[in-house]
Design goal:
By secondary structure, the chain is of the alpha+beta class. It is built from 18 helices and 21 strands. 44% of the residues are buried.
Length: 620
């Protein structure tokens, strides 16, 4: 969530006249970028960076910072050091789609099944999924993270083969709410393959890379040995030093595998900014920059594959790109004919590119006046209060637990503002109309709307690629956390304190007193039940102790751990039977009966939770 919120900072208020004058002084530009980038790199422990700025069809500035290889002290060269640009790769997919639309080989409003041969998208909803939905991330797909990355090239199979096996479930009506989708983008790339008879690699090389002479840009993994460039290594800062990481393989390569130099990305930006170029005619380029889907009148729309980051009436479009070790941003300001690309080769680069972009725009373009606050009341604000979770998460597999991470809490501060809490950070928003709020000390906007089903949604002004849904009751992450805490607490009591209490009582308690305790069989069943739970929990935490592990596939240890929730089903049923027998039997102490009832109830809730999160069974 923090990363997604950070991307929105890239689109800040700017002035057309001021911007046109500021970029005539390249010395001031170089001085500013040197200062802000080196400072951020030092603060966040970034090994290297590459930057390019274009203006009015010319490359205005390129530079490398730090090292592409720390061990060998190899500097970053903007014209020969390849950086992984992550999801900026998607812009090549959308450019390819728009090229084929211009040739009447693709129709943005046609059912995608029209173009698919090896498999079909299920008709889960009455409305079919179209290319327009894929361009705007509104096909209604769930997210999938398992196998999103790979450790070696053996996982690099044709897109159609991967999609046939991993096609996401359709979880919402297409065209309603965006939910950023790597698989949706890969599906669009596969459609390009189907209508052209070329692999996507071949198509993009023939119709984008070669026409623009992007000789140091490739989707291929690993980078071809004959390319006149060298790849930057990715790094993590650990124990006071940079630790080099392995090359990141992306099976859905069209969605995020590009390696490129800053100078090549500069050429690509110029091509997108020009009214007409070697890859897009004027009409198609114009269409690509037009809005295609909007969640709310006060927030930015999605363009034809381009994220709209505009703020305060100034047009800014682009795309971010994140792998684990590389973090990149491409921003285009069409009215100013200005483009900025930057990429960082270390884990914390995501924090850096948003800050650099923010300070870049703030420095060169003054901010306009803030929108005025409107009067409201506590009662009017209360309808927006609640817990919101992002709609981009898995639904069908065991990574559904991601949906509980990073909830946004909205509280009514007083009659004048809302308090938004996310990841422990507090931000205040003031109303500027009945459903729209801006940051108290800035222009960032959030907005609210209710869907057809009555559920309230939260939209972030500069991020049209996902929505936050208001949740309550069982779906509230806080309630799910409470169940998890109660289950763990009961596990400790049953597994540890029951045996200790038994050993303490043995030989010291009258026989008559012992008969008032719970039957041994009931306690053994409960003990086994919670033993199964603790074994599962240990297996789960051990298997995913490295938060990156699951994207490479489900570890064998986790597969084994999934056996134990199934065993819990049997022991919980036996606990329910034992609970019914002892609960109303006065032979047993009242507090013992109530405790056993509580242990049984918590086990039932734990199973319901495990089932909700797809840990009950083998969902992977």
């Amino acid at each position: 969530m923090k990363k997604l919120l950070g991307i929105g900072l890239c689109a800040l208020s700017i002035s057309l006249s001021a911007g046109a004058q500021s970029f005539t002084d390249t010395t001031a530009l170089r001085s500013f970028l040197d200062g802000v980038i080196t400072t951020k790199m030092h603060d966040e422990h970034i090994a290297g960076a590459t930057v390019a700025i274009v203006h009015r069809g010319q490359v205005l500035f390129t530079k490398g910072y730090g090292y592409s290889n720390v061990e060998h002290q190899t500097p970053v060269f903007p014209d020969s050091t390849l950086f992984r640009v992550g999801s900026i790769s998607k812009l090549f997919v959308w450019t390819s789609v728009m090229q084929l639309v211009a040739q009447n080989k693709l129709d943005l409003q046609a059912d995608v099944n029209t173009y698919l041969k090896e498999f079909q998208v299920p008709a889960t909803f009455d409305q079919p999924i179209t290319l327009a939905h894929l361009l705007t991330h509104t096909p209604g797909f769930e997210d999938i993270v398992i196998n999103l990355f790979a450790r070696d090239s053996s996982a690099l199979k044709p897109l159609g083969e991967i999609l046939k096996k991993e096609l996401p479930d359709r979880v919402r009506k297409p065209g309603t709410y965006a939910s950023y989708s790597n698989h949706g983008t890969a599906l669009a790339a596969h459609i390009v393959e189907q209508v052209t008879g070329l692999s996507f690699n071949q198509y993009v090389e023939q119709h984008i890379l070669n026409p623009l002479k992007l000789t140091r840009t490739t989707f291929r993994q690993p980078v071809p040995t004959g390319m006149p460039a060298h790849s930057a290594s990715g790094y993590v800062w650990s124990n006071g030093r940079f630790v080099e990481k392995d090359f990141e393989y992306v099976p859905l390569y069209a969605a995020g595998s590009v390696s490129a130099t800053a100078t090549d990305m500069a050429k690509f930006m110029i091509a997108l900014l020009q009214p007409q170029s070697a890859i897009l005619d004027s009409a198609t380029r114009h269409q690509m920059f037009q809005p295609l889907h909007r969640h709310h009148p006060a927030v930015n729309p999605m363009r034809h594959g381009l994220m709209d980051l505009s703020r305060n009436g100034i047009e800014i479009v682009g795309h971010g790109g994140d792998t684990f070790w590389f973090h990149s941003m491409l921003m285009l300001m069409p009215e100013q004919q200005l483009g900025l690309f930057m990429s960082f080769n270390s884990e914390n680069g995501g924090k850096v590119y948003s800050k650099v972009a923010e300070e870049f725009v703030d420095y060169f373009f003054p901010k306009p006046a803030l929108k005025p606050i409107v009067k409201t009341s506590v009662d009017e604000l209360k309808k927006f209060a609640g817990i919101y979770i992002g709609n981009r998460h898995p639904h069908r597999d065991l990574t559904k637990i991601i949906s509980l991470l990073g909830p946004v809490e909205i509280h009514v501060q007083d009659s004048t503002k809302l308090r938004l809490v996310t990841d422990g950070e507090v931000t205040y928003y003031v109303p500027i109309d009945s459903t729209t709020f801006r940051k108290e000390d800035g222009s960032d906007v959030i907005a609210f709307a209710r869907g057809e089903d009555g559920q309230q949604h939260l939209f972030l002004g500069g991020l049209p690629i996902f929505v936050l849904d208001q949740v309550s009751g069982w779906r509230d992450p806080n309630n799910q956390l409470l169940i998890a805490v109660l289950t763990i607490a009961m596990t400790i009591i049953v597994i540890v304190f029951w045996p200790l209490a038994y050993l303490t009582r043995t030989g010291y308690q009258p026989l008559q007193r012992q008969r008032l305790l719970l039957p041994t069989s009931a306690k053994v069943i409960a003990w086994l039940n919670y033993l199964f739970f603790i074994v599962f929990l240990i297996g789960l935490t051990t298997a995913v102790s490295d938060s990156y592990t699951i994207v490479y596939g489900v570890p064998s240890g986790l597969k084994t751990a999934l056996l134990f929730p199934l065993l819990m089903v049997t022991t919980t049923i036996l606990m329910i039977y034992a609970c019914v027998r002892v609960l109303f039997n006065n032979r047993y102490l009242l507090y013992s009966r109530l405790f056993y009832f509580g242990a049984t109830l918590i086990s039932v809730l734990a199973l319901l939770q495990l089932n909700t999160l797809n840990f009950l069974g083998f969902h992977y």
